[in-house]
Automatic annotation (TrEMBL):
One Gene Ontology CC term in the entry: cytosol
Domain of life: Bacteria
Alphabetical list of InterPro entries matching this protein: ArsR-like_HTH, AsnC-type_HTH_dom, Dimeric_a/b-barrel, Tscrpt_reg_AsnC-like, Tscrpt_reg_AsnC/Lrp_C, Tscrpt_reg_HTH_AsnC-type_CS, WH-like_DNA-bd_sf, WH_DNA-bd_sf
Protein name: Transcriptional regulator
Keyword entries, A-Z: DNA-binding, Transcription, Transcription regulation
GO molecular function terms attached to this record: sequence-specific DNA binding
DNA-binding recorded as keyword: yes
PANTHER family xrefs: LEUCINE-RESPONSIVE REGULATORY PROTEIN, TRANSCRIPTIONAL REGULATOR AZLB
GO biological process: regulation of DNA-templated transcription; response to amino acid
SMART domains per record: HTH_ASNC
Keyword DNA-binding: yes
Length: 164
């Protein structure tokens, strides 16, 4: 996206975005109070941000450990051929697996994809790896790294780079 294609945001828009990134469950009334607007203009601004595609969706973040999902794995995956069909098939398959939280097509290393996967334990991971990932046509290599501790784990974007 070129700089000319970016949406012009003012400081109030940025305050709205920051507040929603911190707590997507805020009611319109709570949000309006936080950013210093009355509810109607606040609602209109949020709708404008949604229509512009800046706010894509609102999610509830769950505590994986409290749900028994204690193992997070970063998986580097190599493909045997770099064709659009191979990549499309791989991406369609992994998008259907609820264990996959994130999937990125990457460059600069031997892997083609980087996945973040959450499962209950090592046995569940082994089953996931052997019965799903390695069975996808074109997967030629897998390297797994196990997360020991989450140091930074956020989906919030750095709004300090956005000009108001």
């Amino acid at each position: 996206m070129k700089k000319a294609d970016l949406i012009n945001l003012d400081r109030t828009d940025l305050r709205i975005l920051a507040a929603l990134q911190a707590d997507g469950g805020l009611s319109n009334q709570q949000l309006a109070e936080q950013v210093g607007l009355s509810p109607s203009p606040c609602s209109r601004r949020v709708q404008k941000l949604e229509v512009a595609g800046i706010i894509i969706k609102r999610e509830t973040v769950l505590d994986a450990r409290k749900l028994g999902l204690d193992l997070t794995v970063m998986i580097q995956i190599s493909m045997d051929r770099h064709t659009p069909e191979r990549f499309a098939n791989f991406e369609e398959q992994v998008a259907s697996y609820p264990e996959v939280q994130q999937c990125y097509l990457v460059t600069g290393q031997e892997a083609d994809y980087l996945l973040k996967v959450v499962v209950p334990d090592i046995d569940a991971y082994q089953h996931f790896l052997l019965n799903r990932i390695t069975r996808i046509e074109g997967v030629s290599g897998v390297h797994s790294s196990f997360v020991m501790r989450r140091v930074v784990d956020t989906a919030a974007l750095p709004l300090n780079y956005v000009e108001a």
